[in-house]
Amino acid sequence: MKIFKTLLIISLLALVSGCASNNATYVDSGGARSIISTNKINIADWNAAAASLTNDLLSSGALEKIPEKQPVKMLVSRIINRTSESIDTDMLTRKITMVLGNSGKVRVVSQDAATSELAEYEAEMTGKKVAQPKITMTGKILEDRESNSDLREVTYTFFLEVNYRGTPIWSGEKQITKQSEKSSFGF
Amino acid sequence: MKYLLYIFTLLCAVAFSGCSTVNTAERAQAQSSPQMVNDKRIITDGALNDYAYIAGINESRVGGLLKIQVRIVNSTSAYRSVNYKFTWIDKDGMEIESATSPWMTLVLEGGESKYISAVAPNPNVCDFTLKLLPNVRD
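ok -> structure tokens follow
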């Protein structure tokens, strides 16, 4: 009887310690093992949207058709957030501008006030003017939710547009849809 | 006996209801002339190769950048998802990290084929690797 009691205590301890485990592990950021959910835009979604839109833009040849010497100066303008969550649109635009910058086709204008001030000062000292960006990037992020008795679904639409001297020269869209089963407790 | 037949029919209906497959039609003689890539494959997961079979890889250059397109075929009758990732190699054999090539998820209906593509991050890229991984989230 005593042995059974000891075994029971050991088993319970093992079970509890297993349940209370909070061992963290590293995974690829936004990779195949990263957590995805229907209640927010996950890192994998930002990565997928940025990659897809950048691939579309680079494949379109729109940047080569601009009658300006490359790299063309680009300003990232407003990205409108029409989702229910508070998001930092840099999660999308930073990745895109990084790739475009590295491709040698575009030079992104810094939106930092101190950097802009310094550029203006340097230009003034050499008797020049700071060149205005020739292209702008704007966009919108939309959210659409659906559900039935078993499933909940969310679709995020990432829309991006590139304009040259105020005229759209390229626009792209990436939709990401995720489904999850509803909890049996109705939460 | 009648009951057995009824149960058998019901079981068949349940078994096949989850296996809708895609029928396709295309031009008998393709007009396009893709530049196919002579590829080398390392298969470590035979089951994955059944539902994410690489039917062909072709390449082109867009604005001086290498573009790779791969046709993936789900040769099973079940709905499947697969993760994929492109990596890029420059002429010196060095891997180039790029935000355009994260792990992406591709969903395929039974019997469906889809194209995936990616553009190299800079003009120095001349080679690529495509990695495929089963759905590891379930």
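The mean pLDDT of chain B is 89.
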